[in-house]
Write a structure and sequence with these properties.
With 237 residues, this protein is mainly alpha-helical. 65% of the residues lie in helices and 0% in strands. It contains nine helices and no strands. The N and C termini lie close together (11 Å).
């Protein structure tokens, strides 16, 4: 199998691969996928701007966090940086499967986790202006949309999926289960970590359950795409 062309004119082979995948793996309209890929440099620029904003947004937490934990602080900005770099490499004809897999995982996981968290603690996010709340909510859902286009530029080899799985597995460990320094570390939430929530879970358990679920979802989707692409090649041979 060959990766998708980076030219503005998308290949018939590429379209055939997409059509061979089940709808649950390719839920976006083909027109929207084509648009995103044709204007990939614009998508790269938007994601780089989002990355810069994200690092600014986390500046206060960087100041309060020991340097050894900094790689695990800016989750969403790293995800947007991954997708910007992945698309840029593809446009330059040097698609990097490990980078595309990281982008896919990051934009699925953080694109879903942030709206989930905003909804779970909606009563406690009143300090955010309605404009900022909606910006965070919808911009993160847009990350999921761009993740669902990445199957068009990569074959998701198992080794690349493993790289992404290991990184986001380490993120889960550091955030919720095995702290490197001090207590489990994560994005600051607007309630105490041991605050009682629904189904007798505490606040940290609620956000942990969400992120574990979304990491497993990204892993399933990436491997399912790989399997279905391989099956499509065998069917055509």
């Amino acid at each position: 199998m060959t990766a998708s062309t980076s030219s503005g004119q998308l290949s018939d082979r590429e379209r055939a691969d997409g059509e061979s995948l089940p709808a649950y793996l390719t839920p976006l309209p083909t027109t929207l996928e084509d648009l995103g890929l044709r204007f990939a440099w614009l998508v790269v620029a938007i994601n780089l701007a989002g990355t810069a904003f994200g690092f600014w947004y986390y500046s206060g937490q960087f100041a309060e966090t020991t340097a050894v934990l900094w790689p695990w602080v800016p989750d969403s900005p790293l995800a947007t940086l991954f997708v910007a770099l992945a698309l840029a490499c593809w446009k330059l004809g040097r698609e990097q499967p490990w980078l595309t897999a990281l982008a896919f995982f990051g934009n699925i996981v953080l694109g879903l986790w942030t709206p989930y968290t905003l909804l779970a603690f909606a009563d406690s996010y009143t300090y955010l202006s309605p404009l900022m709340y909606n910006f965070l909510f919808w911009s993160h859902l847009a990350m999921v949309v761009q993740a669902l286009v990445l199957y068009r530029i990569s074959e998701f080899p198992v080794w690349a999926v493993a790289v992404a799985a290991v990184w986001y597995w380490s993120n889960l460990l550091v955030d919720y289960f095995v702290p490197i320094v001090g207590e489990p570390h994560h994005t600051i939430i607007p309630v105490a970590r041991d605050a009682a929530m629904f189904l007798e879970a505490d606040a940290l358990g609620v956000i942990a359950a969400g992120e574990v679920t979304f990491v497993l979802l990204a892993l399933f989707l990436a491997l399912a795409i790989r399997v279905k692409k391989c099956e499509a090649v065998l069917d055509r041979s």
